[in-house]
Amino acid sequence: MAISSAAFGTASDGTAKATYTPSRNPNIGVQYGTDYSGIVRNQAVGGEVYTVERYGKRRTWSMTYAFLSSADQVKVQALIDLADGRKTIFYFSEDTFATTGIAVRFNQDSFAFEEVAQGATSITLNIIEQL
Fold first, then answer.
1. What domain count does the chain have?
2. CATH code for the domain of 28
3. CA 5 remoteness from chain centre
4. 131 CB contacts (<8 Å, ≥6 apart)?
5. 30, 64, 72, 130: most buried by Cβ count inside 10 Å?
6. Band of the pLDDT at 69, cuts 50, 70, 90?
7. How confident is the model at residue 15 (pLDDT cuts 50, 70, 90)?
8. pLDDT tens per residue, range 105-126
9. Which domain holds residue 53?
């Protein structure tokens, strides 16, 4: 589904989305993916391969916000602080919570705002669906 208006909140209904959602959408070129790391591949001594599914697939997103104002930077930093990096889940919506939000967590260890113009910053956020 294409992102019509990305939003972040503390509950699946979009609670506190105004606190954590920048006023602008991410740049065009959001990357969507599927993570299958929950499926483990094993090979027996005789060469036969078998798999074990610890958990199913998870959706991933990578999005860049460019030219964030200082107010939007504060909102994104508040989201990072709320999640405490990878520690805590939060909710993501591709349509400003018109439908139920998706429980996600950050899929990165470090966050850096890059100054792209006077008073404007850019950041890339990588998130993964929480099962």
1. 1
2. 2.40.30
3. 14
4. 38, 55, 56, 58
5. 72
6. very high
7. confident
8. 999 999 999 999 998 999 999 9
9. 7-129
**CA-only gyration radius of the chain, Å:** 17
Smallest Cα–Cα separation from 127: which of 70, 72, 68, 80? Answer: 80
CA–CA separation, 85 vs 28, rounded Å?
Answer: 24
Tokens encoding 70: 């200082």
In 3D, which of 117, 11, 29, 40 has the Cα closest to residue 73? 117
Query: Is 1 part of any domain?
Result: no
Distance CA 3, CA 27 (A): 10
pLDDT band of 80, cuts 50, 70, 90: very high
The answer to whether residues 32 and 59 touch, using CB atoms and an 8 Å cutoff, is yes
The residue count of the chain comes to 131
Q: Do residues 13 and 101 touch, judged by C-beta distance below 8 A?
A: yes
